[in-house]
Write a structure and sequence with these properties.
Nucleotidyltransferase, domain 5, 381 residues, 14 strands, Arc Repressor Mutant, subunit A, alpha/beta, single chain, globular, five-stranded mixed sheet
């Protein structure tokens, strides 16, 4: 198959619901009906697709409905933050199973983190096998830049001991499974795109939690840039941050005034101290004036940086995710600044919203990436 009609593209469209028949695939892929028919026949012969039942006719014969063949393979997914990890098994149809949250401080260094990851993922794999599922691989969403080719972590600002650590290689050896490692915000964007916004080709997904990350979907694919740090808006300088030192070694970065960690520090100094983002969100929900003011200001700072991104990249949607995206005052501030500062042409039709997949976005991105890379496929793919 050509790049424009790979097995992965067709399976993605069918499994996500964007295409239910050959006619839908013709429309979505922009290919001749004969070409699509050949590709579908190859996938049916390979046991990856089935055609059964009949859809609604739009003139002419009723189309036969396509479905992804039931697949007992799952990928293990780990969506990591600097102080916690969320792990689950992910099926080809986007089902997230056996989800669990675990606490761990990644800033303590890679060796204890690897031991912790291996223990949790090994237990998760055993539970899947006991349930009769085949574990095909592991996807890890890491909170920092990653060279996806080598699987090495590259200069994460809050975790200096991780620089150039070969995380994929080490996990592959310890787990005995294929492993994919990528940036957490990038995989969050991939998960949201594949399962909820597959009709959009240009998408910006912002992860706002303890830190701030941004994943970019360009022309329907994840865009990582030359060195894997595309979308790293966290270390863009903003006037409001003035001379505040940042974990990256610079001063005045967005992270120092708009991240969850920054807001918690401000509350500790001038308002009720909170232990974690959940408590901060509770204060905002209860109408605490200082907490609400802080998240509104954070939204304005994030919106200011994103206004440059929107004018430059011209996405179809800006999607906010991560824990702090649950704070409506923050979301409203981002939306207001974007409409105020961006070119009218850039915001014409622009959707500014929150994730559909919520906390599962990173897990879905990590798991589905692995599954699509390890699927059996026709020789012509």
């Amino acid at each position: 198959m050509t790049d424009s009609a790979s097995a992965k593209d067709i399976l993605r469209l069918v499994s996500s619901g964007a295409a239910a028949s050959r006619a839908d695939l013709v429309r979505e892929l922009g290919l001749a009906a004969s070409t699509v028919s050949l590709r579908v026949q190859e996938l049916v012969a390979a046991g990856l697709l089935t055609e059964s039942g009949e859809g609604v006719s739009r003139g002419g014969r009723r189309p036969r409905l396509l479905r992804v063949t039931r697949h007992d393979g799952v990928a293990l997914a780990a969506d990591l933050g600097s102080h916690h990890g969320r792990m689950a098994a992910v099926g080809l149809d986007g089902t997230v199973m056996d989800t669990a949250e675990h606490s761990h401080d990644l800033t303590a260094g890679p060796e204890p983190a690897v031991d912790w990851l291996v223990d949790r993922l090994t237990a998760l794999a055993e539970r899947q096998r006991e349930a009769g599922r085949t574990v095909t691989g592991v996807g890890v969403a890491f909170p920092g830049p990653v060279d996806v080719v080598s699987g090495r972590v590259l200069a994460p600002s809050r975790m200096p001991g991780w620089h150039r650590f070969p995380l994929r290689e080490v996990l592959t050896e310890r787990l005995g499974l294929p492993v994919t490692v990528d940036n957490d915000a990038t995989l969050m964007a991939v998960g949201e795109h594949l399962t909820a916004r597959q009709s959009l080709d240009h998408l910006v997904v912002v992860k706002i939690g303890r830190g701030i990350g941004c994943g970019v979907i360009s022309a329907g694919r994840a865009h990582r840039g030359a060195n894997g740090c595309a979308g790293d808006i966290s270390h863009v300088r903003v006037d409001a941050a003035q001379e505040r030192p940042c974990s990256c070694g610079n001063i005045g970065c967005l992270e120092t005034v708009a991240s969850g960690a920054a807001l918690q520090r401000e509350l500790a100094l001038h308002g009720p101290a909170v232990d974690g983002t959940a408590e901060l969100l509770r204060l905002v929900s209860d109408g605490d004036p200082y907490a609400t003011t802080l998240v509104r200001a954070a939204g304005r700072h994030i919106g200011t940086v994103l206004s440059v991104v929107v004018n430059f990249f011209n996405p179809q949607a800006v999607v906010l995710g991560g824990a702090l995206a649950a704070a409506e005052p923050l979301v409203a501030s981002v939306r207001g600044v974007l409409y105020e500062r961006c070119l009218p042409m850039a915001t014409a039709g622009l959707e500014i919203t929150t994730t559909v997949t919520g906390p599962d976005a990173g897990l879905l991105g990590a798991g589905l990436t692995v599954l699509r890379d390890t699927l059996p496929h026709p020789e012509a793919s």
